[in-house]
Amino acid sequence: MAGQKILLQTSGLTVGYRSGRNQSKAVAGPLDLTLYAGQMICLLGPNGCGKSTLLRTISGLQEPIEGRIELEEKNLRQMKPSQIAQKISLVLTDNVRSANLDVYSLIALGRYPYSGWLGILTDHDKLVIDQAIKATGTGAFLGRKIDSLSDGECQKVMLARAMAQDTPLIILDEPTAHLDLPSRIQLMRLLHQLAKETDKAILLSTHELDLALQVADRIWLMSSGGRLDAGLPEELVLNGAFQHAFNKDEIEFDAATGTFNIHYAGKQTISVTGDSTAAFWTRKALIRNGFSISAAAEKKLTVSGEDNHPVWEVDDNGKRAVYTTLREFLDTIKI
């Protein structure tokens, strides 16, 4: 992308496991990927497709089977761990839980690549730590012990530690795991904001498809069998990549709504006209009850009126009926 700095690039990368000196099992690849500064990239895919393996390989924790990884134009395999730690900060799925470690001390550990084993913090180190605390909103519980935090609070602290490490690239493996819905939304929004404000690249694996479609600048979409599609979220919806990756028996990704539908065989189709909020949720209710929405259906539904007083009018081969509540309409049409 013109004008944007490339932080990390892979060419012919194959990731997997080595089971012996001359034996290996490939999980995905070959992959040609690019990470740009200031972008948030969401890595999506079904369980077992190799998301964590890819993240561990890109971050230098695991050797690639084949291919090359360049970190700011340097071969990752030729870099020392201390050099990588100044370029990549990694937040794994498991939170750090220690009864004796307070929040500030854990965040300050992010400066270890610079302070060394003595852990002596300079004024610059303290300034970077303070900036990380402010950016992640963790100042309210600095004096607390790590084991007293909620999962959402602990995830913010781990992110603050990664921010204190002050690397161009932050990698997170399922950071929203075990969080409730409001905390997942807050964390994803925070990550997107940090990428824009700090010009860092943030790469994270997640199962939050709906949130990723809203906040990701780019998506890496892995499928079982080693395939990876990379592009804008909207591109991957329009070209069918999401359907290919996630569609299973009786479950289908709906490109029109960005959600999954559960299908039941043997139900009839209906067309729905209307662009109001009531029409949108009526479509949802019909799909949940096993109907397929098709513009060519003989049975036609028009949802009109204001959202607080909608009207449902059905035309079934010239036979008309009007309903003033969604429940009445659904009860009748199911019969």
From TrEMBL:
Domain of life: Bacteria
GO terms for MF: ATP binding; ATP hydrolysis activity
Keyword line: ATP-binding, Nucleotide-binding, Translocase, Transport
Residues annotated as domain ABC transporter: 8-249
Pfam families the UniProt entry points to: ABC_tran
Xref: InterPro entries: AAA+_ATPase (IPR003593), ABC_transporter-like_ATP-bd (IPR003439), P-loop_NTPase (IPR027417)
Function: Part of the ABC transporter complex HmuTUV involved in hemin import. Responsible for energy coupling to the transport system.
Record's protein name: Iron complex transport system ATP-binding protein
Species in which this protein is naturally found: Pedobacter cryoconitis
